Amino acid sequence: MESMMIYMPAILAVVGLAFMWAKRSWVLKQDAGDGKMKDISSHIYEGALAFLNAEYKLLSFFVVGASIALAAIAYVVPTTHYLIIVAFIFGAFFSALAGNMGMKIATKTNVRTTQAARTSLPQALKVSFGGGTVMGLGVAGLAVLGLTGFFILFFHYFMGGEWTNTTQMTVVLETLAGFSLGAESIALFARVGGGIYTKAADVGADLVGKVEAGIPEDDPRNPATIADNVGDNVGDVAGMGADLFGSYVATVLAAMVLGNYIIEDMGGNIVDAGFGGIGPILLPMAIAGAGIIISIIGTLLVKISSNSAKEAEVQKALNIGNWTAIALVAVASYFLVTWMLPKETLTMGFFVGGAEGFEYMDIASIRVFYACLVGIVVGGVISAVTEYYTGLGKKPVLSIVQNSSTGAGTNIIAGLATGMISTFLSVLLFAFAIWASYAFAGFYGVALAASAMMATTAMQLAIDAFGPIADNAGGIAEMSELPAEVRERTDILDSVGNTTAATGKGFAIASAALTSLALFAAYVTFTGIDGINIFKAPVLAMLFIGGMVPVVFSALAMKSVGKAAMKMVEEVRRQFKSIPGIMEGTAKPEYDKCVAISTEAALKEMLLPGVLTIGFPIAIALIPMLFGYENVLIAEMLGGYMAGVTVSGVLWAIFQNNAGGAWDNAKKSFEAGVMINGEMTYKGSEAHKAAVTGDTVGDPFKDTSGPSMNILIKLTCLIGLVIAPILGGHTEGDIPNEEISVGMENTINTEVIAEDISKEVQVNMTSEGGETIAKVRITTTKKGKTTVQQKTFIGTEAEVEKQVQDLKDKA
Amino acid sequence: MESMMIYMPAILAVVGLAFMWAKRSWVLKQDAGDGKMKDISSHIYEGALAFLNAEYKLLSFFVVGASIALAAIAYVVPTTHYLIIVAFIFGAFFSALAGNMGMKIATKTNVRTTQAARTSLPQALKVSFGGGTVMGLGVAGLAVLGLTGFFILFFHYFMGGEWTNTTQMTVVLETLAGFSLGAESIALFARVGGGIYTKAADVGADLVGKVEAGIPEDDPRNPATIADNVGDNVGDVAGMGADLFGSYVATVLAAMVLGNYIIEDMGGNIVDAGFGGIGPILLPMAIAGAGIIISIIGTLLVKISSNSAKEAEVQKALNIGNWTAIALVAVASYFLVTWMLPKETLTMGFFVGGAEGFEYMDIASIRVFYACLVGIVVGGVISAVTEYYTGLGKKPVLSIVQNSSTGAGTNIIAGLATGMISTFLSVLLFAFAIWASYAFAGFYGVALAASAMMATTAMQLAIDAFGPIADNAGGIAEMSELPAEVRERTDILDSVGNTTAATGKGFAIASAALTSLALFAAYVTFTGIDGINIFKAPVLAMLFIGGMVPVVFSALAMKSVGKAAMKMVEEVRRQFKSIPGIMEGTAKPEYDKCVAISTEAALKEMLLPGVLTIGFPIAIALIPMLFGYENVLIAEMLGGYMAGVTVSGVLWAIFQNNAGGAWDNAKKSFEAGVMINGEMTYKGSEAHKAAVTGDTVGDPFKDTSGPSMNILIKLTCLIGLVIAPILGGHTEGDIPNEEISVGMENTINTEVIAEDISKEVQVNMTSEGGETIAKVRITTTKKGKTTVQQKTFIGTEAEVEKQVQDLKDKA
């Protein structure tokens, strides 16, 4: 059984994908309605496909470019193999595939939801949530399948499917990082491009249609209305999917890297584990795999029976599924941790005190489970905090509503202040998560906290994707001029979807933040530095630059929306003027022209932020090299940059998402009417107009720049991770492609230098063909405290032996 | 001559104050105009006094509370003396005195400027700039006099006026930190409270007066108009003055602390300096003193001759004075550096490489001058960048103007984006300043870069304070219904004042940021830690929390403005309704009620942000102590917090100031008319209304929350500095008050542990009465690289000797 565990997550992923396929067939079998509905739905479907195709074209150029860069890294760094390129391409392909599947099913489900809503609400929920489930399981299944599949492949290719040593495993994991990088690159395109697309279409449709021409939302006479509906799918479905796909993969990968370092800390071999000696590496994959099955159970619990149900019942049904899934993940984590980790204790390196405080300690392996609990709980609470700050009827939103009565200015100030204040609790929680999960189980604990939180990704995405599907379904009902009760039913789903969208964003930020931290920890271990000292001026300078990048990135994204929206406005105006009969409904607008404008603008405007994201970490690694800086210092500088991006990125993500969400719901509050200064105030009032202005500002915040922060911080840390081996003190060389025969030699040389001080030099040599890799570890124990230095040498056997001897002499 | 240098800065400060007094007498001798003008002016004067008195009352409570806290610190920490309380009280008093003098002269000068404007523009400039000069020299003079005066006092009290050792000097400087803390605490009240005051009055006056009642700005019928004019003085004059007073003192102090560490790095005594052996400590004071005289020269160059001059000529006159002063500071720095520092080389500890890369290097002392140049140049360029992003007719402001045509929403987005993008260049420059000044001369270089930049503070403040004076003068002209030409002349001055206000804010941010860095460096050396490693989870958690605080602080400040403005709105509405004849001008509004509302609200609303600022660093130091964390780790955690606050605070300061400035000038652009889509657009258009909304949002940004960031980051780092000795590895004990007799014993014990490794243990014992202080320094040289550890022991001679012996045995 145990030895099979390496295949288990992949098998569970396949089970998830099979369930997904069955669900998909069921959804597609549902009635797609009659003529006009079908017509509109196929417009949306084609618009979405048009965007995807244009995106894939651009992506293919990017993939080629990035592959060349990776080839260069593989050439320079001995522990990075050329297979990283293959992994990268597949990572990009799998992520794109997941997005493609999600978009397709979402755009097929919308019309079926509309049709189902003609019969009953429970049926409409079943269909729309079914579509969401397909999306969720597709993303999670492909993520786990891809990651674990490549791990199995590389584990066999580099290590012959059996544990050799941590250096070899590092090669496996560094190569696997390519998969994660590929996935996150697609997320950049999908999230940022998608965010620009959806808001350009939305603003364009609203400004000319609603404001200038005075026709209602989703009116088929509006040329931008199809683009607007496509945008919901591009941004909220594909963008969110790619974001979570990337987080899922990166989190598990980072945990695996840190698991490998646990094995190293335990002497390079775990004796008491029955999982091929790689229990700590398999554990995060196992939790991810279990999460897929748990999510299936969760989705099965989401149903309502009464046709007269309201928002509360629908929300409750979703909550039951979600909470059950989260609780089951906690239970599963307990069993997996106790089963898969060395039974009693793990040895881990901790920073416990000052500069000399790096200590190896034996901790009870159950503490890894506590770390998982921290992740699960904090993920849930951060979602709740997000809901509080953005929820209808809650104090922050009501305060924005009150401030709308004195005009747009005060509405905006209140919204900005709400977003800013909301960082308080979220960041405190987040700091607590870092502190607690580290206190329990070091950075491995931090990574597993993230893994446990991410385990319900499929369920989260199902809940998240059902919102835009319901939104689309309502649009189709409106455009097809169906009876009001249909729209009422889809509106109930849409309204619940808005709440889940907010909590989903909270989940996405929390996961991105924890993922980045895990990657950050993996980065430090990959580079072999023993810390990032911000008291070094160049490191501090990079911390400042890192802090600035999310701010500038957000501004660029916001400006892009503005530019793209302007183009859309002009096009819609042109059509209204030049197509006779368009306002009377006798002539059809040219939907495809608007779709093309959004598509083109989104992809073009995405380039500059993309260059910023990718260019800065590379420049920070390369420029100081040209100036002859030591690799160790450069590694710290890049680490400082990563920390700056993460800290500032998390802040700006929370600020922008919550401010945007709060403005949105402040505006929506007027639909049912709100009490301002003792008077009921409705849509169309001056206060409502002020709230609409606030929402205009909030739109790019919550749908473009805010969510992009997730990608920015993760991608920054992933690029750092891929660059890390260059800075990791390796010398030139390469590991040939032929099967590696592993020879091993272990020299231990302990000497007592002074009373109470002892030095141990441990050499781990792996040789193969003309190449020898030596990993030297010098452990100094002083007054019971232990510090460890590590170096890796690569070269011919004679060279390496000489270097090792030199080091021993010095030690 | 050389031995007198310790008194020189104080003497120069007295010269500056004497010049200030002469200028003040000249200004007060000018004609204060006739009845109505005098009446209005005295209303403003009394309003300002009312605020000051209320503020001082609140402050006295604060000072008592803070003194008790300082007494506790002095009790616990042996190197912190009870005299720190005296220094603190005087720091607060001097800062308050400077603010008081500045406010008084500003409110006396305004009416004299109006009167002067009746005769000619050159005369109006002379009077208004004269008032600014009084303010500038008062602030700078008192800052330098207070700091150097207390240094002389403590130097004699603790060290008998002669160099003994760095430990004693540390006691002097730690006690002196109280002066800086006192000054910065007043700045918190003046900047934040003043910021809330000025905007509450401004928004209140505008919303009811201009918008609801339709009467012009500064109309005497508006009850809030006096409060509005008082606000200009409270916020822009006293607030800015207190801010720069604090920066000036803190920068010089930090440089002195780091200068002391240079002496320590050079073996505890400098042999070749002729300045009582404290050249590196005196240098920053000398530059500050020279800066006062140079600023006087600068102010003398500011004049125009033609009565038909326009903005450009006035700006040019100010520029000539400013640039001359900056250039002279560069020259003075060159001579002072080469004269006062050890002739050829300085020994400094640098981080040059990785974890073991702390190295002692001999650097040419001229490199300290290069660091000064970096500060001077970067300060100038950051001001220029600020001017670009906020200047009338520049691309960013024009783009906001264009975006106003599609409504308030797009105007707001454009303004936010401008503020965010403006962080790019500013932060890059700032990162460059850190990197370059450190590369030239370590953190001493960073501190001297800040000192050199701050040397022209008096000149900067003169330029800065003249703006609000001109603004007030215009208000008085309007309220007194003087001929249009008078208002035209004051408007020219006001317009130039707006530009200088923007660059002044750039200067204030840059100085606050560099000051914080210098304090940060001083903090690290005070605590004796050898770095801040953000790879330690608790430190990383604090970096996140530190990053969050400026965001929440800003939100609190913005909300405070909103609340206070609402109260003002209600009061103005009440007066319009209940005072018959007020709109006809036959009855007088109750100005004092509005002044009282602003005063009360400002002081009340300031408490929560104040508690946040002061509470967090104290909590971070105390709570982990209760949990038994090691002091060294706590010191790193607090350092991480300080870095987080600084990085995030600088970003939010630049973002908010520049966005606010840009919105303001976008609105102002409509006064002269702007071209939008090929059409000239003026005040009163829809686009203008959108721009007014943007300005409403920008007002608290640029005048309340933005400038408060400066205080937040400086005060955070100062509190850290005062707490530092608690965390600095000292044991319990105290240095008695009696004159200290210094005994010195120097043991050197070098042993070669292994080939290429040598250890040197150096013990420096100072004993007095029953107390012995031992400073032990262990220098390890490995492969030519040197690392140093230091410990301080305090206790009876026997105890200390035992501890030292233990350490020697271990080393």
Task: Give a structural overview.
The structure is a homodimer. Helix content of chain A is about 75%, strand content about 10%. The first copy, chain A, is an alpha+beta fold and about 800 residues long. Chain A has two domains: about 1-725, no CATH class; about 745-810, S-adenosyl-L-methionine-dependent methyltransferases. In chain A, the strands form three sheets. In chain A, strands 5-6-7-8 form a four-stranded antiparallel sheet. A two-stranded antiparallel ribbon of chain A has the order 1-2. In chain A, a hairpin with a 2-residue loop joins strand 3 and strand 4. The first copy, chain A, starts with 7 loop residues before the first helix and ends with a helix. Residues about 730-755 of chain A have low confidence and may be disordered. The interface between A and B is large, with 95 and 94 residues.
Largest inter-chain contact set:
A-B, 95 and 94 residues
DSSP E strands of chain A, number: 8
Number of helices of chain A: 20
SS-based class of chain A: alpha+beta
Largest beta-sheet characterization of chain A: 4 strands, antiparallel
Shape of chain A: globular
Q: Tell me the number of structural domains of chain A.
A: 2
Proportion of strand residues of chain A: 5-15%
| Computed Rg of chain A | 27 Å
Distance between the termini of chain A: 45 Å
Strand-and-helix sequence of chain A, N→C?
Answer: HHHHHHHHEEHHHHHHHHHHEEHEEEEH
Strand order within the widest sheet of chain A? 5-6-7-8
Query: Quick check: average pLDDT of chain A?
Result: 84
Instruction: State the assembly state of the protein chains.
Output: homodimer
Please estimate the helix content of chain A. Answer: over 70%
Name the poorly predicted regions of chain A. Answer: 729-754
